[in-house]
């Protein structure tokens, strides 16, 4: 009987966690549906389908608002479970802490600005013949810029001095690929982290910073 009670309590805790981050889990549900849809497409159709929803230079020039929204609703890898874990670890924590509106503002800022900056850098490279002209149609779909931005803003959820090692780890995680690969997506990810760090005003008054040494029971907002 005690096992049943623990199971019910566990389900209740999970349900409460999900209810406290509605935006995160609605987004995850949409991604689940679109991922299932991708698995039902033929490879050739899938590539063309995603390219029309890509924030590449060509599509951004034609319909920027449409592709900026649409690109955040698809996972090109077709693997949903890793994102479910990452969303629960980062997005849900940020939404529970900041509130849905401020969390969404961070996501939009990181996704939109990092996309425009990285694609602008790619356009600059094309104009100087560093990248081929065909790069205007490069596939650029996904949710990782928003995720990187949220990882950045979560720095302010952690109490000093613990936030500094966390911020350094995040910057190294996204900075090393940029130095090694120097691709426009690497630039986008690093830019998104900086945007997240720049969202500190949104974190003001959101709640007490957390000490990693404290247990959840002892930590109050």
List the helices and strands and how they pair.
Layout: H1 2-19, H2 22-39, H3 43-51, H4 57-62, H5 64-70, H6 81-98, H7 100-127, H8 144-153, H9 163-181, H10 184-197, H11 200-203
Helix pairs in contact: 2-6, 6-7, 6-8, 7-8, 7-10, 8-10, 9-10
Write a structural description.
The chain has 221 residues and is mainly α. The chain has one domain. Helices cover 68% and strands 0% of the residues. The chain has helices spanning 2-19, 22-39, 43-51, 57-62, 64-70, 81-98, 100-127, 144-153, 163-181, 184-197, 200-203. Helix 6 (81-98) packs across helix 8 (144-153) and helix 9 packs antiparallel against helix 10 (184-197). The relative contact order is 0.12.
What is the number of beta strands?
0
Cα Rg: 19 Å
Ends apart, CA distance between termini:
34 Å
If helices are DSSP runs of H or I spanning 4 or more residues, what is the number of helices? 11
Poorly predicted parts: 215-221
Number of domains: 1
State the share of residues found in helices, binned by percent: 55-70%
Largest sheet: none
State the order of secondary-structure elements, H for helix, E for strand. HHHHHHHHHHH
Beta-strand proportion: under 5%
Structural class by SSE content: mainly alpha
What's the shape?
Answer: globular
Chain-averaged pLDDT: 90
